[in-house]
Design goal:
265 residues, alpha+beta, Heat Shock Protein 90, 2 domains, five-stranded mixed β-sheet, two-stranded antiparallel ribbon
């Protein structure tokens, strides 16, 4: 006959077993997820590492062209090559940024004071050739005076390029893409407006989630949101039934505390 002591031990054993098995499954799944994440990180790190050499080579080749090594260039040719070189330099900086992120897990912001209006114009020049292929025109509503902000210039450029590139990619042919930037009580408001099909309100919010998109990798808007959040700002998106879509962001103009912030991407 089982006494009370043995019965208690048996019940304790059963309780322990019921707790250990889920813990074992959790640890096993966690290990699997960790290995998968490490494989993804290693893949990204390997790819970006391999991209460094060709981008550096491209920059060097463009420098040779600009230096008239292979003959005198026309003014128009020189302007195009300069824009290509600027894009390559931006890509090169981005590659090192991604490598840095893979190694540290997060990238700390590197803020500086810069002319936001000038940066926006630079981004537009780099994307203008893509817009021309679709007969689009990119129009910027310039503020009366230049807007200077204290932020991570490389990361903010990533957001501008992404939003403007999306406007071109998803925008209708032979339309105007409007870009605006304005100051409001020490905050910068930036917006990109294009003519494209109507997006339901529920889908607009989901576009900022990881891997949620109707084309591409689904990372552009997600990473842009992480960058803006790290600057203590907010992203915005709206679409009306007149087929006008507007994507943008709002960030503080000057915040020294950004030095310690990290981008969770």
């Amino acid at each position: 006959m089982i006494n009370a002591y043995d019965l208690t031990l048996f019940m304790v054993f059963c309780c322990a077993l019921s707790a250990i098995y889920p813990a074992y499954k959790y640890i096993k799944n966690f290990k699997k997820l960790t290995e998968e994440q490490n494989n993804k990180t290693n893949f990204v790190e390997a790819v970006t590492h391999d991209l460094k050499t060709p981008t550096n080579a491209q920059i060097r080749a463009l420098d040779l062209l600009l230096g008239n090594t292979f003959g005198e260039l026309k003014t128009e040719q020189r302007e195009i090559i300069r824009e290509i070189k600027n894009s390559c330099k931006y890509m090169n900086t981005l590659i090192y940024s991604i490598l840095d992120t893979c190694k540290t897990g997060n990238r700390t912001l590197t803020p500086e004071l810069f002319d936001f209006t000038k940066l926006t114009e630079e981004c537009i020049r780099e994307i203008s050739y893509l817009a021309e292929e679709k007969g689009q025109k990119i129009s910027i509503l310039k503020p009366k005076t230049p807007i200077f902000i204290f932020a991570d210039k490389v990361q903010i450029k990533r957001v501008i390029i992404n939003l403007t590139g999306n406007a071109v990619w998803y925008g209708r042919k032979n339309t105007v893409i409007e870009i605006s930037a304005e100051e409001n009580k020490n905050f910068l408001n930036f917006a990109v407006k294009n003519h494209s099909r109507y997006i339901e309100k529920e889908k607009l919010t989901a576009l900022f989630d990881k891997y949620q998109t109707e084309g591409g990798t689904g990372l552009g808007l997600f990473l842009s949101k992480q960058i803006i959040l790290s600057h203590k700002g907010t992203m915005s998106a709206k679409s009306d039934e007149n087929n006008i879509c507007t994507f943008g962001f709002t960030i503080p103009e000057n915040r020294e505390k950004f030095k310690t912030e990290k981008i969770a991407c």
